[in-house]
Amino acid sequence: MSDGYFEWNENRQNHLKSLLDELINAGVESDENGLDSVKDGFKSLYLEKYEGLNFRHKYSTLTEYVRKQRDEDLDVLMTNLRIVMKRCDDEALIEKLLKLEDHLSLEISRIASYKQLEESRNTAIELKNGLDTVGSRISKADGDLNEIHENISKVTKDLEDVKSESSKNNIRLVTVLGMFSAIVLTFTGGMAFLSGSLSGIQDVDVLKLTFFILLCGFILYNLILLLLSVIERAVGFDLVTSNRGYKWMVIIVNAMMLAPMAMIALHWSRLLAFRKKLDFDRYDRANPCTPRRAPAPSPWVCASKA
After folding, report:
1. Are 93 and 44 a contacting pair, CB within 8 Å?
2. pLDDT value at position 199?
3. Buried-most residue among 75, 81, 112, 250 (CB within 10 A)?
4. Is residue 262 located within the same domain as residue 195?
5. Inside any domain, residue 109
6. Is residue 90 domain-resident?
7. Residue 25's pLDDT band (boundaries 50, 70, 90)?
């Protein structure tokens, strides 16, 4: 084959595209004159020869052409092509047009299948993306739900702690109020007792009065400290054990009350011993023959003293 044939055949391929466009542009209800002109074009296209060689349409040309057309245009194309074949009386042309129809039908079916496959693929991709989105949302919702459960558990625990602490505070409050009431009653009762006792004393020795006041103060002070210690234990704060200064203050105050009381007691013990000795001497001088200790004196001692 010469190069001229290939050029001639290529020009014929373009002319085939033009005839197919005319079939589409003619519409469904086309007139006979319009389709007759297309029939004449096909006759010239397929039956004319170049150096004894016939024209053969390329499958690639039909593939390229069909891909660029709409589905409704392809339906019009196939309908009008069949009408043209029915009006042909040349068997050679009919044979060429039948091959053209067959190749167009195959390509249209193949491209339709490809489009359906592409649409199915796109639908599958969209569905997969949608499922991935739903899965991510479900995972996020699960995470949020777990976080909500954790927050609920934490809040519930905090509420239980608050409730328990509130109950403890109520108990502590009642204990503190009771202890303060006991302190007030103890202090008031002690002062009333002390004032009542002092008001009934007349011409009392200063040492006895001092000892009595120190003794009452010592008892009241330590009793109040005992009640305060109970209150500190109730509220969970131990002032005596945690503050050394407070401990030393308690010791010093008690020592300031106990020291005079011990001195007064020592003075009283010596005074009582001295008075007892004087009483024994007076008794011995008044009753020389009366024994005050065992054994009794002998008779001759009493006679000699007489």
Report:
1. no
2. 64
3. 81
4. yes
5. yes
6. yes
7. confident
Q: Which domain holds residue 75?
A: 3-126
The alpha-helical segments, DSSP class H, found in 69-205 are: 71-87, 91-199
Residue 78 · residue 91 · CB < 8 Å? no
d(CA 93, CA 96): 5
Three-state secondary structure string covering 7-71: HHHHHHHHHHHHHHHHHHHHCCCCCHHHHHHHHHHHHHHHHCCECCECCCCCHHHHHHHHHCCCH
User: From residue 303, how far is each of 281, 284, 288, 292, 296 by CA, in Å?
Assistant: 20, 15, 11, 18, 14
274 or 290, higher pLDDT? 274
Residues 279/285/291/293 CA torsion (nearest 10 deg):
40
Q: End-to-end alpha-carbon separation of the chain, Å?
A: 193
Q: Is residue 136 part of a domain?
A: no
**pTM for the structure as a whole:** 0.44
